[in-house]
Each structure stands twice: as C-alpha cells, then as structure tokens.
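ARCHIVE CARD
CATEGORY: sequence design from structure
SOURCE FIELD: tokenized fold
FIELD CONTENT:
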C-alpha cells in the first residue's frame, strides 16, 4: 500500500508539474507569437524605411541636379550681365559720339549759312557792279 501511495503522490506531483509545464509552454507560445508579430512589424518598418531612404536618395539626386542647374544659370546670368554692361558702355560711347557729331554738324551748318550769306552778298555786289558798267 505504501508503495502505491508513493506512486499516487508521484503521479499527482507529475500531473502538477505537467500542468505547470503546459502553462509555461502556453505562455512561451504566446510570447513567441508576440515576438513573431513584432518581427513582422519591424520588417514592415525596415521596408518602409528602405523605401523612404530610396526616396531621400532620389530627392538628394534631384537637389544635386538643381544645384548644378542653378550654378549654370548663375554663370549664364553673370555672362549676360557682363554683355549688358559692354552694350551699355557701347551705347554710352555712341551717344557721346552722336552728341559730338551733332555739335560738329551744327558748327558746319553755321559755317554753311555764313558762306551762303557771303555768297549772296558777293552775288549782289557783282550784280551791282555789272549794272554800273
């Protein structure tokens, strides 16, 4: 009987240990399930970050392209401003020349008018002299 009681007590102990182990196994399976779900979430986040990183790389490339374009446009603007300055200087030079030539033309016109007056007087004197003969 004693041996039977010991075996019964051992059986009860084993059942309690089995129940406890089953509980621990269930908790472990639940924990594994949570970890798998968290892993899936992390994988999704990593993929999302990789897509964002690719987008950022693309944006960086676009920014670099735009910076190069801006440098080219700035250089072209500098060239255009330089050309504009040269043209402005030429226009000023032409305006000065035109003013000088206008002054010379006015002076020549005065000389011509004086010569015409002198010529008219000489013709009148010649006609008078011819009429007196």
């Amino acid at each position: 009987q004693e041996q039977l009681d010991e075996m019964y007590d051992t059986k009860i102990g084993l059942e309690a240990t089995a129940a406890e182990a089953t509980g621990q196994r269930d908790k472990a399976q639940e924990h594994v399930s949570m970890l798998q779900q968290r892993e899936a979430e992390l994988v999704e986040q990593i993929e999302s970050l990789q897509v964002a990183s690719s987008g950022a790389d693309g944006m960086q490339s676009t920014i670099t392209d735009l910076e190069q374009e801006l440098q080219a446009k700035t250089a072209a603007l500098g060239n255009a401003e330089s050309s504009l300055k040269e043209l402005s200087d030429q226009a000023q030079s032409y305006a000065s020349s035109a003013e000088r030539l206008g002054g010379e033309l006015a002076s020549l016109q005065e000389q011509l008018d004086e010569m015409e007056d002198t010529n008219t007087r000489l013709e009148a004197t010649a006609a008078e002299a011819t009429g007196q003969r």
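CARD ANNOTATION: The chain has one helix and no strands. The first helix runs from residue 2 to 132.
SHELF: design records, drawer C
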